[in-house]
Amino acid sequence: MELFFLGTSAGVPTRARNVAALAIRKRNAKAWYLVDCGEGTQQQILRTPLSLNRLEAILITHVHGDHCYGLPGLLSSASMTGRERPLTIVAPARIRAFLEAIQATTGLHLTFAIDFIAVEDLAEPLALPDFALEAAALSHGVASYGYAFTERGVERKLDIAGLEAAGVTRGPLWGRIAKGEDVTLDNGSLVISDDFLLSQRRARKLVVGGDNDTPALLDELCTGADVLVHEATYDRAVVERLGTDNQHSTAAAVASFAQHKGLANLVLTHFSPRYQQDPGATPSIDDIEYEARSQYRGNLFLANDFDLYRLSHDGVLTR
Amino acid sequence: MELFFLGTSAGVPTRARNVAALAIRKRNAKAWYLVDCGEGTQQQILRTPLSLNRLEAILITHVHGDHCYGLPGLLSSASMTGRERPLTIVAPARIRAFLEAIQATTGLHLTFAIDFIAVEDLAEPLALPDFALEAAALSHGVASYGYAFTERGVERKLDIAGLEAAGVTRGPLWGRIAKGEDVTLDNGSLVISDDFLLSQRRARKLVVGGDNDTPALLDELCTGADVLVHEATYDRAVVERLGTDNQHSTAAAVASFAQHKGLANLVLTHFSPRYQQDPGATPSIDDIEYEARSQYRGNLFLANDFDLYRLSHDGVLTR
Question: How confident is the model at residue A313, as a pLDDT?
């Protein structure tokens, strides 16, 4: 699994960081998925190998502009460059109203169908082509959601011991069973291929939070997760100085949750523009990292625009 | 007068060109004006000395997304960075509906008032702080407008011969008249300063067209203009191959109009992404230039993103 960060700033873009967007795909796959779509996401995409025509689904966490104002332009550009395949959008219901209003007032005409799924109605996991998608409601003033991606289609291998124990003789039949075909033996008995195909490994799971002041709301979604991507808009010192967290999380709150939950990998993003890149500045992005490390002993990253992360089969995340 | 091109692509952004936006200001002034605001305009602004807090007015030519989808994010960012001064927006009435729909569906809250003026209702020239603004309706399927900026506050000097002929004796009174003050002479007669202040030069005039398939609709607006900025989305060869001009202008049509009108400076912009930067490519951006030069013998430019043009007091445009 791969994660491309396309925007890592909170609220407003900076010269170094665009507003929120994250691309997810299976390693080197053409098909991909987009979580959030702040203004300028389509311009960021032009600087990656990702194609709008191979975008399988867009997931929006909430309706604030820094997470959705890039949606009309991205859909418009996909139309102008010839997309015809339907596109799934999973988002709070207000995003549907937003898109309908844009279409009504600006004459936006799409060349493809939108399969819109209101996340409020997502009771069962949604089977996307590469992932099973689940969602959890968060706390942020407007309806905000976190999404879990559990990979589908994990490689399987023949259960040789099982086949031998069941008396299925080694030969061409084994090849057909390995391809997922149910076969009938000479003695008339049916062999169900699923019974003799073992998953070679655990399906990986990635959780991406929306804006949220209560990380523990992701507790259930994070069970069995390999990676949590979550906003860390401020550190505690800045929240104390501002007198409000604006319904966002501090680095400490997210890191403490990830430590408590035993998550192996944590990626922080969505940093207030007040944090400067220069390590000597006040406040510096290093303050966020320092605060997170004080609470979390796992594999920690602070995302930058155009960072590419790879999650290995055994759950190790590397940049 | 200065022109900063912030976006010069038609329809969709490319790696080299963002979608439409043009900043205008008096030379080295802090106050500035924005014509059109395609997605990503606020990100382009971050790469210039322009400040959202000193933006005096936004003029939108028409409601197509590549000319207005950057508006919500720009207004949101101006709010988040503390703007309180009201902002004038002159635009087709549908832009008001677009902004109201965005505010209603995404909870966009602005910290400043919008003084919205529907361009359809603009009967008299509008006095902006630095320019008198006029508009003309164009032809593009949706309501599209061109804008003329005529500079205000041109430097004036005392009409010494006139003062002497009127019997106003040289002295401190001249200084007061020079500052625009009406003064009463010892003999009781009133001297109106405007009668004795001569403009040192002609007010410069800049015309910026919106998307438009009929350049001649700008004829009246272009009378006395120093510069015309107009879209040249295609050259004729591409229009013939496409079988349609999509209600845009060819380089030949705009250049021919500018030649006929005797305009000294012509800047073409809003190029279809099919035109490549590489001179050897087909079609190349050079095809646009070659076609325009075949029709126009004035001072011709093809705009690039981040080009800065200066118009001198005597009407010479340089990049």
Answer: 92
What is the predicted pLDDT for the residue at B155?
81
Domains of chain A: 2-154+201-318 (3.60.15.10), 156-198 (no CATH)
Q: What is the pLDDT of residues B31-89, one digit of tens each?
A: 999 999 999 999 999 999 999 999 999 999 999 999 999 999 999 999 999 999 999 99
Q: Are A280 and A289 spatial neighbours (Cβ–Cβ below 8 Å)? A: no
Nearest one of B301, B307, B299, B297 to B288, comparing CA atoms = B301
Q: Name residue, tokens 């971050």.
A: B46
Please tell me if residue B48 touches chain A, with a CB cutoff of 8 Å: no
B194 in active site = no
- Inform me whether the pLDDT recorded for B248 exceeds 90: yes
- Say whether residue A66 is in contact with chain B using an 8 A CB cutoff: yes
% of chain A beyond a pLDDT of 70: 100
How far apart are alpha carbons A75 and A82 in whole angstroms?
11
Instruction: Give start and end residues of each alpha helix (H) in chain A.
Output: 41-45, 65-68, 71-80, 93-106, 160-165, 172-178, 236-242, 251-261, 285-293
CA distance A263 to A245: 24
Chain A residues 92-111 with a CB less than 8 Å from chain B: 94, 97-98, 101-102, 104-108
Q: How many distinct helices (H) and strands (E) make up chain A?
A: 9, 19
> Which residue matches tokens 């003050």?
B181
d(CA B209, CA B217): 10
CA–CA gap between residue B274 and residue B284 (Å, rounded) = 8
What's the pLDDT tens digit per position in A94-148? 999 999 999 999 989 999 999 999 999 998 999 999 999 999 999 999 999 999 9
- Among A239, A148, A94, which residue's Cα sits nearest to residue B101? A94
Interface confidence (ipTM) of the complex: 0.90
| Rounded to 5°, angle at Cα A201 from A200 and A203 | 130
Residues of chain B contacting A12 with CB distance shorter than 8 Å: 42, 76-77, 80-81
